[in-house]
Inverse folding.
């Protein structure tokens, strides 16, 4: 074991239905290489666990528990929203990281997150050069927003997309049943503050066998109330009902979010409402139709019960590949998903330099949005369909998914000093 | 076929994930008795289809299509909210029904709905006596609200309960992952304007293996803001986070719904908000915690993708039993579910006089609500658990549930007159 180094793994940012599948892939693969990777320590609550030397000793978990992570949503070790500053701005943070890594003989840094995390991971990857501490830093992609560049998709997205596509189809069936005498317009608000990938998935609810009228409001398309109302009116007239999928990031021409419509409660406090009730009330006031609205919020990103099998497989694969790349000597890379073919769908894992990833956001390309701005194109459909394909059901007990809760035993602290988070 | 009569079937009120399973059970059973039941006509958009002579000829649908109704949510023939008035108030409606029934040789009236529908069905069952038209009327229970009396549960409820229990568990896992640096309180709004059965199901998310702090706000318990805030505060202090499940029917001591908090939009219009944002903002203002909220709305009652197997089986069974009872000569009854044992769960179908059902609502009994008013008791857990047990997944195609859309071909009209709905 003389060549062996320990590893650090942390989950970062908003959690997903499948980020634990990446953890499962990583830890199971590391266990197969016990000659080169000693213990995998997980940061409790993400990078904060590294800074405060609050490490979880994952070797205390059974193989069965690590396998069960594959079907358990959320972040099993805790996640956080905490972005490391630049080396020049907060050198103390990086010195602290090195102190902790050195104390626990950590040679591999695996960071599982989105865009901000890619940036942090990139900074850590430079520690060998900047502060003389030898470490390999590898980023494992995760974000429901699907906004990381280079990779064909981001683990976490496919499952949210599947959830939203199913929810839109199911609710549309419901509204269609009742529209003669009751609700005619249903509005579903979905995540995606900057990019409309999740909203686009609502468009999959309609297909050749299911002529469901769906109007999508993307963050990428400035909201035009007149055109929107006209489209809803036309759909109700033709189909008897209309479904609307609105991104939380939908905004007016001046950049204001629809959700920030200046709503105030009885006490005059600004109300943090959603975009869905705003849009629904707009329809009511313009057309008089009875409406219903839903805000899926965390339900969509936590919905492991209906995760996409493609997504689960890819999440597991990027975790496993991170270890393989590390053992092959890679540093400062992000693991990627490469699409080889749309149908039948084929993919493989790949890698990209982190420098090409950090601080780049991927939006819906114009050719994925229909000319009128309210729908998706066939090209978008070809892109999305494989990502939501396949089911990967968790086990159930007494009617509920049997998700695992790890023991999360702390590793013994080795440093005498505490650390104040900045 | 001399003894044979045709049947009329209609779906009424809010649709569910499993009301079509009842239709499937009814039509499949009727097809097995072609010597006594000729054609099953379905009302297009419920009872309105009977009044306007807009009948769907279900014999035009294949056996495979009728079987597929078992896994398809919503109302396949259309539903409506339309309550027949009393015979004295609107005799014309009943005379029109008889005219249509006579024209299509209908001897069986099957009505699939909730409390209001039971009342309508009861009135139709009296037509033999009151207007001399021989008909057998049988009510098939359906309501997500679970508020029909006598029957142990109502088909439709178990699947919503399962959805809410799972959603609460999944979202709670999510919040727990992030609570150190982000969201600490998550609020989920669920259906149930009068009865708290659906809200109660949120309590199932926590069990011996999952110590999740959940505060439930029932319509049956008057809302006390101080006690509520104190409980949330205690949970956040002890667990780091708190989940809240609020019924849309939660109300203040004066009877006002929490959702009607006098919220106004930028134009001063009363905003039809939800209870969830009201409760979430209350927590923010009192305790300062970051929050998220979701409103499941139709997503919960349409969620056939995660329907309870118990519920699907029971929905099918009550539809099938309605035909059996009709052939045995019954009239003016509702089919019921009778519980024989909690664990292992055993049940059978039964029947009850419609006179005992119409206009009676079943609320959560006090012994199902914990003393503090914010949780469920073990007795409630014993009642609910079997109702959400088992999964009954629909088939999938390209990542989406392969729900059926029937042809719904109209039966040839036989009457020269139209009918104006009242």
């Amino acid at each position: 074991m003389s060549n062996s180094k320990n590893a650090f793994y942390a989950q970062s940012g908003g959690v997903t239905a499948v980020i634990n599948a990446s953890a499962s892939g990583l830890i199971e693969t590391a266990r197969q290489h016990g000659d080169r990777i000693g213990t995998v320590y997980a940061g409790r609550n993400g990078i904060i666990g590294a800074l405060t030397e609050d490490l979880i000793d994952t070797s205390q978990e059974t193989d069965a528990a690590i396998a069960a992570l594959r079907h358990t949503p959320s972040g099993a070790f805790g996640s956080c929203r905490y972005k490391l500053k630049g080396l020049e701005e907060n050198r103390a943070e990086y010195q602290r990281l090195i102190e902790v890594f050195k104390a626990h003989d950590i040679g591999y840094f695996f960071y599982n997150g989105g865009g901000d995390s890619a940036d942090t991971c990139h900074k850590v990857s430079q520690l060998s050069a900047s502060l003389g501490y030898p470490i390999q830093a590898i980023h494992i992609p995760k974000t429901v927003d699907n906004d990381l560049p280079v990779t064909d998709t981001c683990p976490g997205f496919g499952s949210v997309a599947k959830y939203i596509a199913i929810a839109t189809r199911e609710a549309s069936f419901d509204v269609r049943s009742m529209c003669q005498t009751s609700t005619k317009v249903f509005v579903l608000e979905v995540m995606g503050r900057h990019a409309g990938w999740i909203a686009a998935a609502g468009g999959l609810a309609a297909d050749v066998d299911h002529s469901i009228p769906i109007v999508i409001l993307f963050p990428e398309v400035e909201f035009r109330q007149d055109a929107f109302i006209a489209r809803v009116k036309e759909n109700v007239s033709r189909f008897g009902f209309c479904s609307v999928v609105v991104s939380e990031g939908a905004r007016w021409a001046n950049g204001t979010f629809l959700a920030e419509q200046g709503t105030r409660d009885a006490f005059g406090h600004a109300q943090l409402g959603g975009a869905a009730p705003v849009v629904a009330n707009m329809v009511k006031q313009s057309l008089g139709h009875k409406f219903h609205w839903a805000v899926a919020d965390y339900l969509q990103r936590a919905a492991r019960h209906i995760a996409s099998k493609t997504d689960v497989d890819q999440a597991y694969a990027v975790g496993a590949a991170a270890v393989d790349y590390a053992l092959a000597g890679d540093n400062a890379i992000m693991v990627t998903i490469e699409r080889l073919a749309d149908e039948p769908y084929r993919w493989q894992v790949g890698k990209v330099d982190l420098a090409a990833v950090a601080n780049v956001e991927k939006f819906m390309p114009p050719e994925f949005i229909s000319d009128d701005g309210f729908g998706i194109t066939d090209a978008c459909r070809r892109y999305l369909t494989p990502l939501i394909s396949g089911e990967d059901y968790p086990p159930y007990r007494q009617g509920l998914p049997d998700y695992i809760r790890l023991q999360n035993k702390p590793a013994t602290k080795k440093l005498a000093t505490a650390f104040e988070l900045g």
In short: Chain B has 13 helices and 13 strands. The CA atoms of residues 185 and 291 of chain B lie 5 Å apart. The domain at 157-302 of chain B is CATH 3.40.50.460 (Rossmann fold).
